[in-house]
User: Which sequence fits this backbone?
């Protein structure tokens, strides 16, 4: 019987029973973590052999004769450009291969706009008074943190099943020149697992913005990260935007953080050729260039996009059962509340869980008390402000499956208790 | 006989002879490079074995149990902090171990001041109108490029034999709050090889600045890079500045670019504990953290500061003969002009050559015509503007010694020709 169909007495009895279970669990002094999209040790071990792939001097020389051990090649080695251009389906000269962090490339992209402005516009954002970004919600906390840090005001936009609410996006950007961009995770969104539809991408490609320095921050973090079989096919935003001479608005990011190693992967930025030239001018001042040996390691180890896709199958063989377990436990434990919903992602690293309004922060603190780390309630919204206090992000990949089962059961228990608190108030 | 003692006829005869030599050299179609402080292949090979030093999972785990392959440890692994704290003679918590580029850490340090301002001052430089930096000259072109890129006006300050002209520095910063910093390469300066005296460092430590967000950009790029025997001992600026509660002005940088690999080294930033805390706050938004596996590679390979110093001996065994050769050729060929001077560095990567006023750009273009790449004339001054057009930076490390001999002889020839052009005008 669902909670929504229970009598007041039945609810009280259920609550008393669950409270006992909670106390027992608490006495076990758990120390578990399902807070962030971190790779498990088993996944990290998949790529161990990459660390030994560069041995001789010859292993370090690129096809154009550059010694990766020395200075040079600001925008990446040609082999890495080819590999990642294939992955993103862009041209080699629409790409910069960077260091180990796509987040750093996103931050730097916005910091450049703050300090220098866009080439051809050249009004630094820092001098334009209040500027704003659109944030489809729920979304990725680290995107929001960049805007907050740079003093960019964030405006929530609903994330629907086929991507951001494009009517709302089009309406807002058409009339307000202070809206300078939007954050998007187009495939297997963090945290909802949403896959943007081609119609959504098409509307982004032809987006008419009042601002002439608008940035579509297209974080394709999970571009090859399907859980079950082949990765979802999607329209290519950069190519589509070219049709509408809108390619200078597109900044696409990806990395191998969840393909090879989160701490030591390779990040890439794809954008229009004009933007690439402008960015190269700036980074030639900023840095001596990214770590080319690490780029070469990736090239020699993966060989081609196919090599990457094969590795992704091995990753999903490890993590898909974890997503399945979470879904099964939610189905078994949370269906009965009649008041919870959760995403059933086909890829990516997260499950988005919606609990009754007002309950998310209660669940989070109950979980803390049990010794299970969860992404803090509110993290999926700008300024940590979830207006209905109902969304939680679940990250099932890191814990071994037996620990994940304990952690997820604990989560279900906390959700049910928080729900009953409300229903019995 | 020196040019300055020759008759007009003798000068003309000498010039006619050298012109012939020049034409013969030109017909050889040289393709040589002494433009930048790049490591030779022989030097790169010294560190080849570092690439294979991480093999098993255990090799990737830090002493505090962090898996370097995964996310985490924003400011560096503990072992790398220890190693570089020893090298810089600072505390572990006065240090951030970063990515592969100290230049990037310098740029980011100034970019943070532009966007956020200094903690406790909090007036972003971008909002303060015109701001300025002091630049000891001749100096490092990439430092100047950062200021130029950020729109920071540069003011030349003479670099004397014991460091910047401190009377001038003290006078300027005492009264002008828009002067926000100074670039320094305190040991084996680029390009002069100058070693700042302890008296100079002491005066920096107690520097009284009108600006309350002043930055001493202390680029200790050549801290262990002596050419002959032990590296010069110097007063520690950060420690000395603490005595005058001035430690928040000190930002010290170093890297292993010229210890291990220029493209794939490890960079560090040392500053006050308060600054470290403030910077960590910002970089936690900017990045997932630097490449910890590469930090671990350096730790496992070098082991200790002693391991680094041993490696530096092997480097100097390769490059010291190159510096000796340049000096010998200059002595043999340029002494006779009576109008050239050059540095005799005890460390670092450059020789600074002063030719007669107005001649540097002439020498540079003559060298280009011969097919020998030199650092462009003017590069050692802000805005590429060498007021007397007389300074050239010579970088002897990259070419094999036989090529270096040809290139240096070519340089001497061009210098003599340019000098004779003036003397016979």
Assistant:
């Amino acid at each position: 019987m669902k909670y929504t169909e229970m009598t007041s007495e039945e609810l009280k009895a259920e609550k008393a029973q669950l409270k006992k279970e909670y106390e027992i669990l608490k006495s076990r002094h758990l120390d578990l973590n399902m807070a962030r999209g971190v790779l498990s040790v088993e996944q990290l071990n998949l790529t161990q052999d990459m660390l030994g792939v560069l041995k001789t001097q010859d292993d370090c020389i690129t096809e154009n004769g550059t010694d990766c051990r020395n200075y040079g090649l600001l925008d990446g080695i040609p082999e890495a450009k080819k590999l990642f251009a294939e992955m993103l389906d862009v041209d080699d000269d629409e790409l910069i291969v960077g260091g180990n962090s796509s987040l750093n490339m996103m931050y730097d992209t916005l910091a450049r706009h703050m300090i220098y402005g866009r080439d051809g516009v050249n009004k630094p954002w820092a001098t334009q008074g209040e500027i704003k970004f659109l944030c489809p919600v729920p979304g990725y906390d680290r995107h929001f943190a960049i805007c907050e840090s740079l003093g960019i005001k964030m405006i929530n936009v609903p994330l629907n099943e086929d991507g951001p609410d494009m009517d709302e996006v089009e309406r807002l950007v058409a009339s307000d020149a202070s809206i300078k961009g939007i954050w998007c995770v187009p495939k297997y969104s963090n945290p909802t697992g949403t896959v943007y539809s081609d119609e959504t991408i098409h509307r982004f490609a032809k987006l008419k913005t009042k601002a002439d320095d608008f940035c579509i921050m297209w974080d394709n973090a999970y571009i090859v990260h399907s859980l079950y079989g082949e990765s979802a096919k999607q329209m290519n935003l950069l190519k589509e935007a070219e049709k509408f001479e809108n390619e200078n608005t597109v900044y696409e990011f990806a990395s191998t953080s969840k393909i090879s190693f989160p701490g030591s992967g390779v990040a890439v930025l794809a954008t229009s050729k004009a933007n690439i030239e402008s960015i190269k001018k700036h980074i030639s001042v900023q840095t001596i260039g990214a770590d080319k040996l690490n780029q070469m390691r990736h090239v020699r180890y993966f060989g081609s996009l196919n090599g990457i896709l094969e590795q992704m199958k091995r990753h999903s063989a490890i993590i898909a059962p974890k997503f399945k377990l979470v879904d099964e436990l939610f189905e078994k434990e949370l269906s009965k509340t009649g008041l919870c919903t959760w995403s059933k992602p086909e890829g990516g690293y997260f499950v988005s869980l919606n609990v009754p309004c007002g309950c998310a922060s209660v669940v989070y603190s109950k979980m803390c008390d049990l010794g299970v780390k969860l992404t803090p309630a509110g993290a999926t919204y700008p300024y940590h402000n979830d207006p209905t206090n109902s969304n939680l992000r679940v990250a099932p990949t890191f814990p071994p499956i037996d620990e994940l089962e304990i952690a997820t059961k604990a989560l279900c228990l906390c959700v049910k208790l928080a729900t009953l608190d409300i229903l019995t108030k």
About this structure: The longest strand of chain B covers residues 153-160. The first helix of chain B runs from residue 8 to 26.
